[in-house]
Amino acid sequence: MKLLIIEDEIKTAGFLKKGLEENGFSIDIAEDGGIGASLARQGDYDLIILDVMLPGLDGWSVLQALRRRRDLTPVLFLTARDNVADRVHGLELGADDYIVKPFAFSELLARIRTILRRGPLRQAATLQVGDLEIDVQRHRASRAGCVLDLTPKEFLLLSLLARRAGDVITRTLIAEQVWDINFDSGANVVDVHMHRLRAKVDDPFAARLIHTVRGIGYVLEDRSRR
Ligand code: CA
């Protein structure tokens, strides 16, 4: 498996390269967005790790150029803390996932493995779980054809669950991913928002899609056909 890291912070790039090579990946590094984009064009990469703030060409432009060529190489975005708009924008442009800096290497590795396992077919611009449809590009979610009126946070929360539909998403991960807060201070925030999200996504419909896994977190799953 060959990965491209586009990251101008030499320390971060070096740390990622070392860790990933130890896990059997072959790694190229670009410290400039323009160089990264041209490497991405030539190289046959299985995945690209892409920083947003880059010299030359920013991460958005690199991703946009890639997707315009219908290049579906999976992209994992590295985003700054406290920037929900960044994450939503990344997903809209066709990123497969994002991870918030600073991150634990083990978490990054788990994300990479998940993306590589599910392969390019899951990169559709639309995520579907039962009769729930999320149009990532247009930033719209609907159930049974009814558009759901979601706030940006709720949309991000629902997208997070939908991207890993069937997997239990811990409240810790939700707190970190959607709010950039740790679980100790964030448990209540997560539960309050999840309650509001359910009121919109599940309450008006016959089948529930969001399920609580007591003491752990939540899973988005269509259980009606079991
Ligand atoms: Ca940077």
Task: Give an overview of the whole structure.
The chain has 226 residues and is an alpha/beta fold. It has 2 domains: 2-118, 3-Layer(aba) Sandwich (Rossmann fold); 126-220, Winged helix-like DNA-binding domain superfamily/Winged helix DNA-binding domain (Arc Repressor Mutant, subunit A). It has helices at 10-22, 33-42, 59-68, 84-93, 105-118, 152-163, 171-179, 183-201, and strands at 2-6, 26-30, 47-51, 75-79, 97-100, 126-129, 132-135, 140-143, 146-148, 169-170, 210-213, 217-220. The strands form 3 sheets. A 5-stranded parallel β-sheet has the order 2-1-3-4-5, with helices on both faces. Strands 6-7-8-9 form a 4-stranded antiparallel β-sheet, covered by helices on one side. The protein is globular and about 50 Å long. The protein starts with a strand and ends in a 6-residue tail after the last strand. Bound molecules: calcium ion (CA). Residues 8-9, 51, 53-54 line the site of calcium ion.
